Automatic annotation (TrEMBL):
The keyword Oxidoreductase applies. GO terms for molecular function: oxidoreductase activity, acting on the aldehyde or oxo group of donors, NAD or NADP as acceptor. It holds the Pfam family Aldedh. Belongs to the aldehyde dehydrogenase family. Its EC number is 1.2.1.-. The active site is at E263. InterPro entries: Ald_DH/histidinol_DH, Ald_DH_C, Ald_DH_CS_CYS, Ald_DH_CS_GLU, Ald_DH_N, Aldehyde_DH_dom. Gene3D superfamilies: Aldehyde Dehydrogenase, Chain A, domain 1, Aldehyde Dehydrogenase, Chain A, domain 2. CDD domains: ALDH_MGR_2402. It comes from the Bacteria. This is Aldehyde dehydrogenase.
């Protein structure tokens, strides 16, 4: 099975070329069973390719190849590994346009506002981690003058990485680049909704990396994800997805006593103070809510607490700006907002909108406009929504919707709003907009979240530790710390020189 690595800007053609394949043990293969499932274009509902329905037999092949390759990889000087990982980033950077188009096709995320950006961050993540190889250092310990006591960082072995569909390129890069530089092999299970672009990335990476070191399997959770977590030669699992599945993964890892990193979503608060710079806060709220991605983000600022004195003006300003956004074909450069990923998520989001309507005191504000192009009739488009007049106790303000549904809640007392922001099962991100530095500092200390921002709304950045507290997960990603703590073991060595 061969697929050209030449840049292919027609995503439909590329999807066809990659149809039905995994990239395992250095080459393309279908699933051992020959079974496949459909990959659909969420903008039209049409099938664009098949993906292999991988099962335990496929996991076994990938892990065996990874185990073999890892032994040799770990023997390379760290900087040589780093150079190869950085080289993956360089080669991937040549494919940004191609990857951006393919991810837009399979996920429905708008090319201009989302998909192209994700593809370029992917390449950047590999370059960043490649440069960190020399930081895999140990320490010397002043234990005894006649004993040389030191620590070294060793790889864990084969890492199993399970990723979701919302930002598969970025999430795969954060996990894979760190794990590889640290001397591990990686087997990825892609999300059933978005298996194609990560497969293409794996193919491209394999033009640089040793055979078998980095493999990818498409498949479903119970049939492919579970056997990967349970495989005796997988020594670490890193997972991004729902809380429910995160707990299943954590339990399976506990049976084997292996470490896990879990990134599990949120219901992130954003607090807008009366003295905030209104223009910036409005733009920040729209960016934070990820309206251009149909709100499908674990860090989405989906609970916005607005001071009562500016509440109405703030809502009106957000409304005006989102109304001006164009929802349409993800591959069209004019499009600001693409689609929801799948029929399942579409129904889930619709059910939360219905719940919002039934919520006591709620006012529903419907934004932007449905696409008019008839070929998009069956697409999973949802008009963004704001619900006002609700409280932090209402279900729509407590449960992760993972859609373009934003809860705006009025506040008047600073202590009360901090308490309400923290009154959530989740603790991934939090944001405050204020020009009062003292208030900002106070909030950053008191907000229970792993990623707190003042007067801005950046997404994940290389070298900023990313990860949540409470139900949002365990461990950090994207940073030096994440590589050292989550993809290595620290070994203590004592040499008695007497
Ligand atoms: P999910 O957590 O079920 O899926 C994430 C990944 O886990 C996929 O690759 C899936 O195949 C895999 N998986 C499922 N069951 C598994 C098992 N038993 N063992 C091993 N792997 C397994 O999330 P799903 O169903 O795609 O979305 C449901 C909800 O989860 C969303 O509405 C959203 O609220 C949340 N979610 C959060 C994400 C985040 O970034 N934190 C990403 C995706 C979903
Ligand atoms: Mg699921």
């Amino acid at each position: 099975m061969s697929v050209s690595t030449s840049i292919e800007l027609d995503p439909f053609k590329l999807a066809q070329a990659l149809s039905g394949l995994n990239f395992v043990a250095g080459a393309f293969h279908p699933a051992a069973s020959g079974k496949t499932f459909a990959v659909n274009n969420p903008a039209t509902g049409q099938e664009v390719a098949r993906a292999p329905f991988s099962e335990k037999a496929d996991v076994d092949v990938a892990v065996a190849a990874a185990k073999k390759a890892q032994k040799e990889w770990a023997k390379l000087p760290a900087r040589n590994r780093g150079k190869l990982v950085a080289e993956c980033g360089r080669v991937l950077s040549e494919h940004v346009e191609e990857l951006g188009r393919l991810i837009a096709l399979e996920t429905g995320k708008a090319l201009r506002t989302e998909s192209r950006i994700e593809a370029s961050v992917l390449a950047d993540m590999f370059v960043f981690f490649g440069g960190l190889a020399s930081e895999l250092k140990g320490e010397t310990v002043p234990f005894h003058p006649d004993m040389m006591t030191m620590t070294v960082r060793e790889p864990v072995g084969v890492v199993g990485a399970i990723i979701p569909w919302n930002v598969p390129l970025l999430l795969m890069a954060m996990k894979a680049a760190a794990a590889l530089v640290a001397g591990n092999a990686v087997v990825v299970k892609s999300a059933e909704e978005a298996p194609l672009t990560v497969l293409r990335v794996t193919q491209i990476m394999n033009t640089v990396l040793p055979s078998g070191l980095f493999s990818i399997l498409a498949g479903f959770g119970p049939e492919c994800g579970a056997p990967l977590v349970e495989h005796p030669d997988v020594k670490k699992v890193t997972f991004t997805g729902s809380v429910e599945t995160g707990k299943i993964v954590y339990k399976a890892a506990a049976e084997k006593l292996i470490p896990v990193t879990l990134e599990l979503g949120g219901k992130s608060p954003m607090i807008i103070c009366a003295d905030a710079d209104m223009d910036k806060a409005v733009a920040g709220a729209i960016a934070g809510m990820r309206f251009t991605r149909q709100g499908q983000s674990c860090t989405a600022s989906s609970r916005i607490f607005v001071h009562e004195s500016i509440h109405d003006e703030f809502v009106a300003r957000v409304r005006e700006k989102v109304d001006a956004m164009v929802m349409g074909d993800p591959l069209d450069e004019k499009t600001d907002i693409g689609t929801i990923i799948s029929d399942g998520q579409f129904d889930r989001v619709k059910s939360y909108i219905a719940l919002g309507r039934e919520t006591k005191g709620a006012t529903e504000i419907v934004l932007s406009a449905m696409p008019t192009d008839a070929k998009l009739d069956k697409g999973f488009f949802v008009q963004p929504r704001i619900f006002t007049g609700i409280t932090n106790n209402d279900r729509i303000a407590r449960e992760e919707i993972f859609g373009p549904v934003c809860c705006v809640i009025k506040w008047s007392d600073f202590d009360e709003v901090i308490a309400a922001a923290n009154d959530s099962d989740y603790g991934l991100a939090a944001t405050i907009w204020t020009t009062n530095l003292k208030m900002a500092m106070d909030a950053t200390r008191r907000l229970e979240a792993g990623f707190v921002q003042v007067n801005q709304n950046l997404v994940v950045q290389p070298n900023l530790s990313y990860g949540g507290v409470k139900a949002s997960g365990l461990g950090k990603e994207a940073s030096l710390e994440s590589m050292l703590e989550h993809f290595t073991h620290k070994k203590t060595i004592i040499i008695n020189m007497q």
